[in-house]
């Protein structure tokens, strides 16, 4: 029997997910909202996103199923493969952009060669994968503890050595909410890959969501404060102005590794839903190699555009209605369609959710288009089930 992970191990894994350049960059893009609104968007977006993350973790954790295998509960054996394929594609995209941004920032701190930084980060991620999620305790203990200390120094340097300034640019509340909520929701199709191998799935789901939420909020606060106080959204420049030097380089490289490792690992786990005979570790290494190659040859300079793209194409359109249906089926309706090949009613509801999200993008909502879509699809899934039961009763 394979070793199961503890709550402490999972809390460190999800701290590593939250301590990320991506989270800091997201915070910098909120600067046009100003400090007060920016903080409010960060907190509200993370509370909503992490609550959904918690629910998603319970589903796979209680059933001992990876995230994409848990999708079989709502969409059937083959229906889940469609979502697994899309998940693998988005995770390779995340792997590429994270390696690229990490290498770009590292090269600005220490001018070595961006391609060499790409290869170094890619190689270290592969090293993490070879160690394996069940055996990362001591490696993560040292890495995450150091990152927390150095992030604290970065935060102190930013907020004590610069004076406040007014915000510039334009960004609506709804756009800010979409940017923020894209971060926790991007982990929805991954969290069960970790809770399913945990000793205590439900508490682990809660602790994972809390630790990720707290560290992610902290990183976003740093990014927001840096953009408002230093007039800069370049993470390398912010680190250099903070006087961290080599310590800042450590933050860049190892925060990239601890986050991107999870993307690559879950790409491997999701690939096994499609090809059951594949080795998850080898598939994860393959995803890392593809991400590394894309970071070497593809221009990825505008992270905000990537966030909007990934949020629009995958998180809002694909995974938001998917998780809405799963939450309704598992917690409210208590149904299980794993014995079916495809659950066509839910697939049609998912397609409706996809269309609804694309339409809602043209309008401005207080909680953003993604959360609004989730609420609508939960109501539609519950309503459809009730109607079908009434029809059958007659």
Automatic annotation (TrEMBL):
Subcellular location: Membrane
Domain of life, source organism: Bacteria
Membrane disposition: Multi-pass membrane protein
GO molecular function: cytosine transmembrane transporter activity
Pfam families: Transp_cyt_pur
Main subcellular localisation: membrane
Gene Ontology CC: plasma membrane
PANTHER family listed in its UniProt record: CYTOSINE PERMEASE, CYTOSINE TRANSPORTER CODB
Protein name: Hydrogenase expression protein
Species whose genome carries this gene: Limosilactobacillus reuteri (Lactobacillus reuteri)
């Amino acid at each position: 029997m394979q070793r199961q992970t503890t709550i402490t191990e999972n809390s460190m894994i999800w701290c590593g997910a939250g301590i990320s350049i991506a989270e800091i960059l997201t915070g910098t893009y909120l600067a046009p909202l100003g400090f007060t609104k920016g903080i409010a968007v960060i907190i509200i977006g993370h509370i909503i996103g992490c609550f959904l993350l918690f629910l998603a973790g319970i589903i796979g954790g209680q059933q001992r199923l990876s995230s994409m295998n848990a999708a079989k509960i709502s969409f059937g054996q083959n229906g889940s493969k469609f979502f697994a394929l899309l998940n693998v594609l988005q995770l390779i995209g995340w792997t590429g952009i994270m390696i690229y941004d990490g290498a770009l920032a590292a090269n600005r701190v220490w001018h070595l060669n961006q391609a060499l930084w790409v290869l170094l980060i890619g190689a270290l991620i592969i090293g993490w994968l070879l160690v394996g999620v069940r055996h990362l305790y001591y490696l993560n203990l040292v890495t995450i503890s150091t990152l927390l200390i150095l992030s604290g120094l970065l935060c102190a340097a930013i907020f004590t050595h610069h004076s406040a300034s007014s915000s510039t640019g334009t960004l609506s509340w709804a756009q800010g909410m979409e940017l923020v909520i894209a971060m926790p929701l991007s982990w929805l199709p991954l969290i069960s890959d970790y809770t399913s191998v945990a000793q205590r799935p439900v508490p682990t789901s809660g602790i994972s969501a809390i630790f990720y939420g707290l560290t992610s909020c902290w990183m976003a606060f740093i990014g927001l404060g840096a953009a408002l106080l230093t007039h800069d959204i370049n993470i390398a420049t912010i680190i250099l102005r903070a006087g961290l030097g080599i310590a800042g380089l450590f933050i860049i490289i190892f925060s990239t590794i601890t986050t991107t490792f999870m993307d690559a690992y879950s790409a491997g786990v999701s690939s096994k839903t499609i090809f059951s005979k594949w080795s998850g570790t080898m598939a994860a290494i393959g995803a890392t190699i593809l991400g590394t190659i894309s970071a070497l040859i593809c221009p990825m300079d505008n992270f905000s555009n990537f966030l909007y793209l990934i949020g629009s194409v995958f998180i809002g359109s694909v995974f938001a209605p998917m998780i809405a249906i799963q939450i309704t089926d598992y917690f409210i309706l208590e149904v299980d369609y794993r014995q079916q090949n495809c659950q066509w009613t839910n697939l049609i509801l998912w397609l409706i959710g996809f269309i609804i999200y694309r339409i809602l993008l043209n309008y401005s909502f207080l909680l953003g288009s993604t959360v609004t879509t989730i609420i609508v699809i939960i109501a539609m899934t519950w309503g459809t089930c009730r109607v079908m039961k009434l029809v059958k009763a007659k």
